[in-house]
Write a structure and sequence with these properties.
mainly alpha; 2 strands; Arc Repressor Mutant, subunit A; two-stranded antiparallel ribbon; single chain; 5 helices
Amino acid sequence: MTALAERLTEILPEGRANAIPARALARRLGVDTRTLQQLVVEAIERGVLIGSASSEPFGYFLIASESDLEAGTAHLRARALSCLHRWSRVRKLARERFEEPVVARLFELPEAVGGP
């Protein structure tokens, strides 16, 4: 894990009630919010359980309980389902316009999400 991602995990508070807004967290780390998002992804990939909340209290936090887990991932599920719905609609429209081998190649799901 990079030094910045390590620092992120050190300053993140436990629990949603203590969430730190992205801008404040980025400022503390000396990065912009886009870099902060990348650091969060890096830390999660390294096994740190980080949640984020898009309603009060906003921000990032270490998941410490089942309720933190629910609150810290609910918006991710909603966003993922919305993206999947849009992806599915575009695939259906593409099948009406393009040949199936092209559509099959471009819309193949990776194995990790239920593909071949």
